[in-house]
Design goal:
This protein is 36% helix and 19% strand. The protein is α/β, with parallel strands linked by helices. Helix 5 links the parallel strand 7 (127-131) and strand 8. Helix 1 (22-32) packs antiparallel against helix 10 (275-282) and helix 9 (253-269) crosses helix 10. The structure holds NADP nicotinamide-adenine-dinucleotide phosphate. NADP nicotinamide-adenine-dinucleotide phosphate (NAP) is lined by residues 67-69, 71, 108, 111, 132-137, 156-158, 161, 183, 201-204, 206, 230-232, 253, 256-257, 260.
Length: 289
Amino acid sequence: MEIPPDTRLVALVGDPVAHSLSPRMQAAAFQARGLRWAYLALRVRSQDLREAVAGLRALGFAGANVTIPHKVAVCELVDELDPSARRCGAANTLVFDRGRRVVAFNTDVAGFARALAEHGVAAGGVNAVVLGAGGAARAACAALGQLGSRRVTVMARRPQAAEALCAQMRGEFPGTAFQALPFDPGALEAALRQAELVVNATPVGMHPHEQESPVPDAAWLRAGQVVFDMVYNPPRTRLVRMAEQAGARVVGGLSMLVHQGAAAFELWTGVEAPVEAMKQAVGLLPAEV
Ligand code: NAP
């Protein structure tokens, strides 16, 4: 396939990246808006992240998405953090200013909030549990803080990561009570039984580990609860199926994927994102014939 010299380039930087739907979704968005842009998925190991960011800037890329496991580490490698990234300590979108400055944004926060709104879920005043303490968990916590959740319990297998996340969020969102708990079965069951909103911000259940679920027992979930699984590949994860079995309302990761991608598209191009075309590209809406 020929890529003409005046093509503007955007990269996805992560490890792994093979599962990502972002290349398909962003290519559809560029095409829908008639832009000569291309989006490349690049597998970058943690030890190479610094050189990768510098290299993309030097090569004249217009921007990048940053995904698992680099969203926190990349914040140390940029010239400027937009408040969206600074407030949650993680970034998923970089804008390269014509080879000069690198500015980091977090569009996962807005993507998470828009996905909740699209499903009619009001997070104000709720008691939420967030599983994981990485980049995606930081975005969920910042969104829940912004939306005025009453309590957010962060559960992670590394207690110090959960505590560090909560310490930052307490400073940013004093109206929300953030607490860190260990990701062990006893604490998990007790927290889930009290939660109105459960967010999976771990990769557990993601391809090729579709048989796994961060929640071991569907009986720990219930009707009336909202379960938000950020994992989108497969679209119906084991956790989503367990939540449906328990009668809970489900928000799948594809909705957030589209909305965070739409916000990133607008930062790179300055053009309104074609959200319908992006939904079609990831299978959330039937494709036009
Ligand atoms: P990350 O920064 O690597 O963080 C992952 C978190 O999950 C860490 O706290 C990690 O704990 C924990 N974890 C990993 N494996 C676990 C396991 N087996 N049991 C318990 N905890 C485990 O990754 P991320 O960027 O936050 O992404 C997390 C997931 O969210 C990925 O599947 C990603 O694709 C998805 N995501 C989706 C969207 C969307 O738009 N739908 C947006 C962002 C992220 P340790 O630190 O102990 O390893």
